[in-house]
Amino acid sequence: MKSLYPLLAALLLALASTPVHADAPAKPGLKEWKVPWENTRPRDPFVGPAGNSVWFVGQAGDYVATLNPETGGLKRYRLDPGTGPHNVIADERGAFYAGNLDGHIGLIDPDSGNTRKFRLEGDGPRDVHTMAFDSNGDIWFTEQAGNRIGRLEVDEYDFRMYPVKSESARPYGLVVGPDDRPWATLFGTNRLATVDREGQLREIRLPRDDARPRRLDITDKGILWYVDYSGGFLGRLDTNSGEILEWPVPGGPNAYPYAMALDDQGRPWFVETGPSPNRLIGFDPESERFSDPAAVPSGGGTVRHMVFDPETRSFWFGTDTNTVVRASLQ
């Protein structure tokens, strides 16, 4: 009789080399910092280049601020009344904020507090909404009421604007892909949008007519994830093949998923803003399983935007309950 050991060894080797489907993401730990400037709607945190400060804006308080997560220290930079800051992104040059109500992008010097304004020209709404850097350090952004996607070449102080053909499309969330193309949600429609390499704005229709995509993120391989706020779906667009897949979120049609971002494994996380308290939920694309919800301790009110910091494996977001939150992955 032949020995069974070679067969067993071969079987064990095959099992060891067989990919194991990941389980649902583990529920993260949440820590909140109370913002002392009451009823100012702190939002859109962004981890600074040094990693020791987190920038955010007070949309209803006309300020940009930093939080030191180690000490809990806060520093506020006051803006002109009526600025209505909506979003902030930062690099070695300082913090760029979206002057949503005043038609400009501002750059704050963290040391002096001095502000340089890049003002949009023309008539009609110029409501800079959500911004993202490209690889050159220039800025792509959306205008919700202006119905445009724009690009600011910072060094040249040069704006280039791309009108959206669909009326009242409400360009909203925006990210920049690995090839430096911007991708945006058109919250007033069931479409996404991008500006191609030839400089043409192109719209991508989603399968359901009543879908209203609000936030999105993209992997380095061009897999784009989005949340459908009105229908309660998580969606996936392969920007290479055009394939679109969707999954109902755990909270159902009244979940109103809003803020979302990808972690360092390419897994989408989003906040259901329908439930009170708001709930942070992750999704594993391999197992197609959702994580257990992590409730925002203060309730959240509405969590509108979040980012992922790969250095600390943490998400950051602001809340309408006047807090800034770090969600740390296990």
From TrEMBL:
Pfam families: Vgb_lyase. It comes from Marinobacter daqiaonensis. This is Virginiamycin B lyase. One of its GO terms (molecular function) is lyase activity. Transmembrane segments: none annotated. It comes from the Bacteria. Residues 1-22 form the signal peptide. Keywords: Lyase, Signal. The keyword S-adenosyl-L-methionine does not apply.
